[in-house]
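In this notation, each integer encodes one residue's backbone shape. One such record reads:

___
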Amino acid sequence: MANAVFGDRGSATPTPRQHGEGNGNDNNSIEQPTTRRKIKVEITSDAICPFCILGLRNLQAAIATAQSSDPSKPLAHLDFELEFKPYLLDPTLTREPIDKREKYESRFGKEKFAVMEKMMKQKGQACGVNFLYDGPVSSTHDYHRVLHAAYAKGGQDLQMPLAERLFSGYFEHQKDPGSRTWLASEAVSSGIFPSLEAANEFFLSDTYDAEVKQGYLKARKMGIHGVPFFVFEGKWAVSGAQPPGAFLKIFDELVKCGCGRTNGTDSPLTADQNAPVGDACGDDTVDEDGEGLKVNHGQDRDDTCGETGACGGNNPMVCG
């Protein structure tokens, strides 16, 4: 399993070197470290989509590769801010849990489901994820609310650890992604709330209910019909659990067109006008309707979870 380092806290700036070091040069001037750039990545996903955790693992692997590359290369000086955005993969689910395996077998038939399950287990093992298809499942709306609360309180430093715990709980430990009892416990353990009492009060309230529902609507306005869906700096978007190499190519293009922030500031970089610019790097950023966003929707990809409950176009997998 790839464990990438995110943000400024975990990405050390290279140590300055003395000019002429090792060649007898007495020049004591210090070489300035390369300016770091921070890339914002919005990940539209849902708790019950297996390709969302696989896509996250591939993105993390790409980030780890970039940050451990040759220090003379721009990719080595990238930091990343990841934010999960809500998507309701199965709107028919309610707060009343149902048996996950029975749901899949009813939808696909036992024989077809057995083939799907085996295939997804193989895909998971390749990314260090041990998929289990037993246990309950219910509406993920409260899951999205608590993830929103985590980011609102502490950005990715709070949201990412919680998302990891919830992904693992659902896919590997048969937890119900809509259980307020479980969500509250995990949120307290992740530092989102100071106590179970505070967490329970949150779930009994309507805090972030409207914001999450607006997130569902925004995803549809952007034309998102399957997850995971990754948006980089509001300019480049891809769907599906892309391989690490595909993400690295996107990082390269973002560097070329000067996307990102410097040293954690909010000021966008000025693009090098002489640098080659990829098709996805334009002057416009994404708006509420997705205009100005260069998108590869991946309609025929076999690594997305769609609204019909089948994953992957002509090669359906198990999700939803």
